[in-house]
Structure formats: C-alpha cells, structure tokens
Amino acid sequence: MGDMSVAELLELCSFPPPGTEVDCAVSGGPDSTALLVLAVEADLVVTAWHVDHGLRSGSSAEGGMVARLATGLGASSRCVEAPVDDGPNLEARARDARRAAWPSGILTGHTADDQAETVLLNLLRGAGVPGAAGIGSPERRPLLALRRHETRALCEALGLQTLADPMNDDPRFVRNRIRHEVLPLLADVSGRDPVPLLARHAMRAAEATHLLSGLVADVDPTDVRALAELPDDLVRLALRAWLTRGADGLPPDSASVDRVLDVVRGRIRATQVVGGHRVVRSAGRLSHGHL
Length: 291
Fold this sequence. Notes:
- The chain is an alpha/beta fold.
- Among the domains are: 6-107 and 142-169, Rossmann fold; 218-290, no CATH class.
- It has helices at 6-12, 30-41, 59-73, 90-101, 112-125, 128-132, 148-157, 174-190, 194-215, 224-227, 232-245, 254-264; strands spanning 21-25, 45-52, 76-81, 270-273, 277-282, 285-290.
- Strand 1 (21-25), helix 2 (30-41) and strand 2 (45-52) form a beta-alpha-beta unit.
- The protein is globular, with a radius of gyration of 21 Å.
C-alpha cells in the first residue's frame, strides 16, 4: 500500500466525531469502498447505501456484495433499486436517480481527482468562480484530500474485492474524457501533476465564493422590487446563489444567470436555465421549478 497506513489516510479525512451516525454511498468501486472502510475506522455508526440502476446484467448481485462487505466491517447496509434506461444524458439521469434514492446528508467517496475533474468540467460549462470551487457540499465529501490511487491501494492492501463500473470508461461522458485524456495531457504539457493544483484552486475559489456571498446575504433574490436598486453584479451574485440551491448544489452557467437577470429587469417574463428549470416572474416575485 506504499507509505500510507490506514491511520495516516484517516488523518487526511474530514469525518464527523466518533459515534456519529452517518450514511455512506457505496457503489462497490474503490473510492466508495475506501469511504466505508475509513468511516468504520473513524468509529462512526455507518449505514452503507447501494443504488442499483439496472443498467447491466448482474448489477443486482453488486448490492449483495456491498451488503456482505458492510456486514464484514460491522456496518449496516441498504440496497435500493432506482432503474434508469440507457440513452441521452445517462450520467445526469443516473446521478439524479441516486440523489432521489439516498437519504439527505449522505457521505460520498469523491477524491481530489474527482475535484480536479469537476473544476475543469465547471469551467467548461461557464460556471464562473463558484464552479471553480468544484464539488458542492464539501462537508459531505470526507475523502477530498485523498487521491484515487490511495483509495485503490487501501482496498488492495486489505484484500477487498471492488467493482469496476464500465460507465467510468465510456467516452460518451465528458468527465471520462477529462479523466483519461485531458488531465494526462495537462500533466505531460506542464511537467507536473495538475490534480493538487486544481484541488487547491478549488479551495481558494470556495473562499472567494464565501466572501462574495456575504455581500448579498440579506438580499431576497426572488423579490424583484428589492433588486431594483442593486447593481447588476450584485444581483447576479444573489441569483447565482439562489439557482445553485435549486439545482442540488450545481452552480449555474453564466448565460443562465444573465437570462434570469433579464427576467428580474423585466426584459423578458420567463426563461429556462440549465438543469431543466424554468424561472418565471409573476406579481413582482421570481419562482422556479422543473419543466
């Protein structure tokens, strides 16, 4: 397992205090398996949640494997079926199905590598400074300081069988091309590992986002009249925060924010924003919901 012991890996994690009841999302891959192992090692009361999308034959057996792993570690487990059909937007639809099936506040096994990929993805979406902060709800990502090779090494050192999800190699998904093509090319061009740089950039961007959000903390972004006296830049900040809350922590792209600003200023009455939401102005108030 190299130089890192379980105790040393745990030092890098950000778990809640011992004895806390937590839910962990466990697909059976190395990252989520390491999350489960380390959560138990942190003396938490752990329930492992496995979601079966039914996308491939034999997927139902994977839940049984996760349940046996959890039992062997002294954790509880829950297996949930959330069927998803193959086709367009598969990655996003599967993610939405998992979120709907999970309890609120569930911990996930996202690593520094996932963080780096998310920063690049969000920049390419035009999500601005909040997007550069990377994965939303960092308090639910206790492994963000670990690397993917460390979670794999932990599982191998403990002799734990893990699953390989074919979706992680499917070039249809932009994230996978960033993982397998863009980041290795960046490493080659720069002569250094870009992941720690992007992860640190995410931390700085999160600090900047926090500072900026303080400027509009008392602003109600749904009250069009209250926004009338504010400059566009501050209104955009308030709208971005509001739209992010309505999209499960995913920051909106700048074009969506600009269109909603047009709704606020009365230039248009309604608009669609990325993520399948429609924002409407009525009686001096903004509202948004799924299309």
